[in-house]
Amino acid sequence: MLRLEGVSKRFGELAAVSGLSLEVQPDTISAIIGPNGAGKSTVFNMITAIYRPTSGKIFFENARIDGLPTYRIAALGIARTFQNIRLFSYMAALDNVLAGEDAHLRARIWDSAFHTPRQRQEEIEARDRARELLRFVGLEGVTHTYASNLPYGSQRRLEIARALASRPKLLLLDEPAAGMNPREKHELGELIRAIRERGITVFLIEHDMGLVMTISEQITVLDHGERIAHGTPAHVRNDPRVIAAYLGTPAA
Amino acid sequence: MIYAYFLGSIALVIAAQRFSEPRVRRLLYGILVIALLGAPLLDRNDATFNVLADAGIFVLLALGLNIVVGFAGLLDLGYAAFFAIGAYTYGMLASPQFGIHIPFWILLFLAAGFAALFGIILGAPTLRLRGDYLAIVTLGFGEIVPQIFQNLTQYTGGPNGIGALDFPTFFGRSFGQSAMPYYYVVLALIALGLFFAHNLRDSRLGRAWMAIREDELAARHMGINTTAIKLAAFALGASFSGLAGVVFAAKLSLVSPDLFGFQVSVLIVSMLVLGGMGNIAGVVVGALVLVLVNNVVLPQANTLAAHAGIHVDFTNYHFFIYGAILVAIMLFKPEGLLPSRQRKEELRHAAT
Questions:
Q1: With a CB-CB cutoff of 8 Å, which residues 160-189 of chain A face chain B?
Q2: ipTM (interface pTM)
Q3: How far is B183 from chain A, CA to nearest CA, in Å?
Q4: What is the mean pLDDT of residues A119-130?
Q5: Is the pLDDT of residue A155 over 90?
Q6: SS in 3 state form for chain B?
């Protein structure tokens, strides 16, 4: 579904990601893990074209996407959340989700200016879908609350609802469990499984090993911008290079 | 008497905004509309309606700039450029300058289109810029446009501008020197402007503007084509000032470059800040307050001072007075007189 072929990103002298190849299979939950500074977020930022890869190719459903603008990639069916939540702070929760639907709305400028019957019908349907998504992530009670006034855990959920509103085929979650307590983490795991049940492939960056190991089917491990391991949680957990990357190499 | 119109309108708008009950709100706005439409039947003082028509032109400008600054969050300090383009459209195509005499009503819409086109032309190179940088570049455009009109002497009459513009006609009857017909034209255009501003705000486009105002990067990740959306804001905002420019030029029967300087752009931005950026009713109130100060209070202060034997020209101190008003607003009510809900919350959070 998503394929990276020899992707590298250099920032001046620093090689943030070097020659990374990986493939995300459809209808799976996959993860990238690795110590801080391993280049995980850079990978996501290249997929959604915040950064352009220095070299390498990125394919989505066999079409090359590196070089396309962010909004086109979103419209193709890749949605994401951000490590440091980036909601539309002073818009109601419902409006955040509605903004997420933008790529699928058809109203043109004149529809917006004149409120044509077509635009009114579309807005009613969009609102229904947005309410349904808020219910799905468990935020039905806060439809009209500003995003910035929501508690932290709810903001993370709202960001997921907003990403789902763009009807993605692939959902990228950048550290979704950061700052959550164990109960919230457990609920998040359930939510991610429910998202996959909807036929959406999930690809996440996560530091919480408990969560990653229980929900992921495939894990890629990065260290210093390079892939050091890849496989099932059981395989990755026992890989000596992974253990070394996390705990340091034993003194010779 | 003139104070009754301004203060009455301001009071009715503020009162209407205080009531969330839609029936009360509609009643108050209904009273305002009937009073404004009926006023010329009782009051025959043309000078009053001259000032009110000018006020209406600024209301229209404030509504237009609010789309760019209030909705989309793009600080435009050169908005008067589009006002100038609207006005010169009328000046050049309805005057002896080229012997072209296109009717007012056609030029009204042509100028709106022209201004929108220039909105896109001037907007396009600035799209990569944000915040302060955008403000500085638009400020530059605001300076360049009147300069061009000043220097293209053979087309625009240079610093003297173009005079003896055609009087508009309505079903064969000329507007003549009276301000009354302009008053009604301006009221109609404000109604149109309010219709579009409300519709745009509560639509896909309005939501996309607010999204880029809140977080442009996140907006792009929602599939929003931020370039196209920003250009739409510049174009639609500019079209309002195109309309305003045509009425302004026709009413004055004159266009000249010094009418559209930086101080006009600043005046319109001040109206938004004073009234409450992003809120439609707020910017209308902001426009009315500043026109009242500028066109009524200051000239009267001059007359009063002259009676008392003091010879000061208070109109020369208008920048000082706006400045004082803005400082007072920032100190006591930073969200403006009638803020939008967003802005109120935003500033409340910023303070804590």
A1: 162-163, 165-166
A2: 0.92
A3: 25
A4: 95
A5: yes
A6: CHHHHHHHHHHHHHHHHHCCCHHHHHHHHHHHHHHHHHHHHHCCCHHHHHHHHHHHHHHHHHHHHHHHHHHCCCCCCCCHHHHHHHHHHHHHHEECCCCEECCHHHHHHHHHHHHHHHHHHHHHHHCCCCHHHHHHHHHHHHHHHHHHHHHCHHHHCHHHCEECCCCCEECCEECCCCCHHHHHHHHHHHHHHHHHHHHHHCCHHHHHHHHHHHCHHHHHHCCCCHHHHHHHHHHHHHHHHHHHHHHHHHHHCEECHHHHCHHHHHHHHHHHHHHCCCCHHHHHHHHHHHHHHHHHHHHHHHHHHHHCCCCCCHHHHHHHHHHHHHHHHHHHCCCCCCCCHHHHHHHHHHHC
